[in-house]
Please model this.
Amino acid sequence: MKRLFLIAALVGAAPALADEGMWTYNNFPSAKVKEKFGFDPSQAWLDKVRLSSARMAGGCSASFVSPNGLVMTNHHCARGCIEQLSGAKKDYIANGFYAKTAAEETQCPAMELNQLVQITDVTATLNKATQGLTGKAYNDTLKAKMSELEQTCSAGDAKVRCDVVTLYQGGQYNLYKYRRFQDVRLVMAPEHAIAFFGGDPDNFEFPRYDLDVTFLRVYEDGKPAQMDHYFKWSDKSVKEGDLTFISGHPGRTSRKLTIAELEYQRDVAMPKQLFLMSELRGMVTEFQKRGPEQKRISNNLLFGVENGLKAIKGRLEALQDKTFFAQKVAAEQELRKKVESNPEMKKKYGAAWDEIAKAEAQFVHVRKDLAYMEGGSGLSSSLFSIAKTLVRASEELPKENGERLREYSQAGLPALQANLFSQAPIYPELEILRLSFGLTKMREELGSNHPFVKKVLGKESPDKLAARLVKGTKLCVLKDVKGSKVCDVSVRKSLFDGGKAAIAASKDPMIQLALLVDGDARTIRKHVEENIDAVIKKNSELVAQAKFDTYGTNQYPDATFTLRLSYGSVKGYMEDGKQVAPITQMAGTFEHATGEDPFALPPSWLKSEKLIDGTTAMNMVTTNDIIGGNSGSPVINKDGEIVGLVFDGNIQSLGGEYGFDEASNRAVSVHSDAIIESLKKIYGATRVLEELRPGSTHVPPAKANPAG
Amino acid sequence: MKRLFLIAALVGAAPALADEGMWTYNNFPSAKVKEKFGFDPSQAWLDKVRLSSARMAGGCSASFVSPNGLVMTNHHCARGCIEQLSGAKKDYIANGFYAKTAAEETQCPAMELNQLVQITDVTATLNKATQGLTGKAYNDTLKAKMSELEQTCSAGDAKVRCDVVTLYQGGQYNLYKYRRFQDVRLVMAPEHAIAFFGGDPDNFEFPRYDLDVTFLRVYEDGKPAQMDHYFKWSDKSVKEGDLTFISGHPGRTSRKLTIAELEYQRDVAMPKQLFLMSELRGMVTEFQKRGPEQKRISNNLLFGVENGLKAIKGRLEALQDKTFFAQKVAAEQELRKKVESNPEMKKKYGAAWDEIAKAEAQFVHVRKDLAYMEGGSGLSSSLFSIAKTLVRASEELPKENGERLREYSQAGLPALQANLFSQAPIYPELEILRLSFGLTKMREELGSNHPFVKKVLGKESPDKLAARLVKGTKLCVLKDVKGSKVCDVSVRKSLFDGGKAAIAASKDPMIQLALLVDGDARTIRKHVEENIDAVIKKNSELVAQAKFDTYGTNQYPDATFTLRLSYGSVKGYMEDGKQVAPITQMAGTFEHATGEDPFALPPSWLKSEKLIDGTTAMNMVTTNDIIGGNSGSPVINKDGEIVGLVFDGNIQSLGGEYGFDEASNRAVSVHSDAIIESLKKIYGATRVLEELRPGSTHVPPAKANPAG
Model:
């Protein structure tokens, strides 16, 4: 595949023509959209779209699609829930799920949805607080002030979540206030075989034929939540050339990083991550051969690893592209030259790039320690994470809010507790594999003589230690509830409520390990935060301000898993000298089926082939600027109606981490027509259909499911 | 670990002071050794050392250590044989092996040793033949002339092997004539646990405590081969500061590659290889958990993968070191500037670097096709390789010698047949894993729509196809011989003897697959050989000649798995600011034991701890310049006597692929004293001891084995 990285606008200046940008809702370039597409999104339009959009706390996007709290997202965004609700004898991943009645809608053990209700600019407040500070003082003050703002905002209401969001690498700070939905139930999911048709080989590719959709419902006080704002379903099929908006939560881009930061990503961070993930992939692939239940419980992990591998490889290739990287270097040099030529700017910003480079160079020496002692690379176990959270909560919660580690601040507590007390099952066999793998890597990367390695392993092997810890802990006692496994979390609750005394008295081996390593973990984290992160943050703020001063404020910030709006249109592209059409048809799905996983269609599709209109649009590509985290985002038209559902980007879009190339960077979506056609003719999901398009079905709800 | 790459001499000029160089025997810098160490190796000395050295065709080094054909090498070099001779009930890898009588010495199913008996410079002959030629004509002529020289040299004698060796990237061609030993028997091997004590975590590290030794014996006509030349065992323990020589077969270095070639290695080849190997490592690690027999049959593969991973990661880090790479760039620029400033040189050599760069850029576009269609990345199966060899032999052997693919030339036939008819067992379960893995990668890398992928997979999944092929082929029918599995190779023999007709009539699925893909495989190979390799070869010759013209001929060529001699001394080094002592003691082995693999000592060691003199030297480091392939090389003193056995390099030595840094680059060896002490007190291997040091044992051979 030939990859082009001819970036329209690499520096801060707003792109002139390209459909570039993951725009914040308080800085959307409506004028630009009007100029190119003749449609001028009003503030009311923007507000409505924002309030109809949803964030999935686990790292995806979604949308409200009915007044009764119906939510649409991707199957791969709800996989965790679908898998958790499954058991050896009712495999919803393999067979799909459909709640024929409201009573059958089943709660996801660990899912939270957020709706962005307010954005407030708090840049001035924070800048004033940290003025003149550096290092530890800067870091402590910034952290304390952020926690204070968040606490004031949420005011102890567990239904509210407030985050101070760092935008433009610190050039701007906004306070985002969310309404939280913690009772999320599964309504309808197709079979994995069609949701992820083509599997890893076709992931990030186009043409595609996936029905990567799942419907959920948010509940409040045991009843479907009533939504003032939601997206209606469009009656008109979106076509080539039509204007499209995508409202969602791109997770991260690195378009505004300095060259030193990009070099670190290219030469150290990404290769190391890829080696680790490749090995884990091989291990889990082979683990799946232990048996069907092992396959079932590890599918989600394997999907995540494979998806991540392909995404990171794409990003690495982008940075290894010499022409592209040279453009990045030239853009930085141009900005630095402008700064140098202006005495006032030079004084304020001139040293920032070299300071960041020095901090990056220092980080290389401690990155392994940080990853294995404080990060999750070595003690790579959900059970250990729970133990660590319990140990730290007992230390942190008695402290003043502003003095706590960031993730234990008052505003974040409801989310932390929701996570901590989630009953989502943790399977010992897979957990041992993951932990043993992490311990082996820890010994390999830090060396068998590293004091931390000796402390953790003692005279045990990674396999033996992992097995002893996982089998010995009571942090998840698996029990059967209606044929599904869930964790009994009573031990977690009593340890959390019991605080320091309970933790100290605990004989649980995971708690004891978390206690054993906590001092070392805190030490390395503190070192990095105060001596490296603080330097990078402070100087990144300066670089951002230099860009504002030089190129103006009509820019979008790098993605930060906060709500963004992008605009574009349905449009094909050239690949290897051939034109790729922007829309595929349902008939193509059958043509590509081989009968063998991952190209095997589920029985429901095979038996419905003749019922389906093969010319129905299946998947499509649009020029919208998106990135990982946008999965599950609604594609809407200018009337704010659903015309599609983002589920991927093409392989060329992976370089979007570092810059947008309108020539070939494409968002890949399920066309709304395919969703309707399959709900109607394959799944007979009349309840859902009726809710999406009231009056569109003529079958009484009672016998709504001809296929089931 | 801090890594320094301050290279004494990056360009062609001979290093002034450092113990750098893997010298050919016909260009050894005796004068330089004399200047630094006061010893002047004579031609007779060099001849004796050369003839006492041995090459293991599988990719290691060895030495003759008695007049009766006793051979010393590493345990890890003989692993393949030890594993092949083992069975579920007699695991020589785990328990070691000792032939108490001559009759118990057991033939290795697939091992060949070579002794270098003659070197002839054929540069002028080849240059004359290819003068003025380029592309296909250059390639065909070079290949034909090489085959002709080799055939004339070996003259049909199966006991002789002749190779035209390309040195200095084509600056020189030498004809190497070897005496072949194909009957190699296992004499004594310690347990894997002590041979590879510390396992992968300690691999490429120092201090070390490994007894990585194995004794073999070469036979001729069913009797121990009588050797005119062999190394005597030194009576004197080698000590810090002593002069040491290492004679062995470094596999490959890339010190003289151009920047374009190094960049390709750094940015494409090595990362891709590491991703692949990491994944395979994870898979095999988990495969080992299927059971003890699966662990046993896959240990060798896992060792190879882990060893390779660590080695390549070290090399990649070297090339990613900015200071080091800048030195390489500067050296090339210096040479190019000299060439540019001399009109005659400019005309002859000026374009060479850019031509190589262009060819490398082209190669990027076809590397995947080459790797998966002709290379072994996709059809990664020993059984497929055998099928491919049979199919190609039927095509190639009827051709004129000069027109055949290189590996089917007359001179190479004995080695090819030895390989093809080796009875070394191939285990279906592991074979299916390897092949399925390769097929999955092929689909992933080439894409599921690639015509070759479609041709190979059809509508089958990689797992299913791999299982069908491996279970269906008769190219290795496993049978039991004295408790070991071996392949019945009669089908291979009849297909080989039956030629094209037999191949065409074969219903064997591996043969049919090999036939199916052979056209595509040949096409891509031919394309690369004629349009890319030929350009690189031709222009590399020019670069080499430019170096000779500029810096003189007192240089050593890059390693090419041909016999080299390096000099140096026993010497510690600085690491992370601490001095590392050059010699460890046997007592340290016990101190580092944890009881858990890979730090678990075998029972024989545990029960002999008190018998051993703990102050006996165990492992040591020397400044000799070596690289992978040198494993098993003898370390000798100026009297040409054994003082150690190379088994590794330290982690800093991995950058030796691209340049030698005497400050920290070290060869790691088993000290000869540890070999004697353990043969005597742990293994009671009196037969071997008596042969190494006649008269040194006073126990009659009949009750020679107190431990066994």
User: Anything to note?
Assistant: Residues 509-551 of chain B form the longest helix (43 residues).
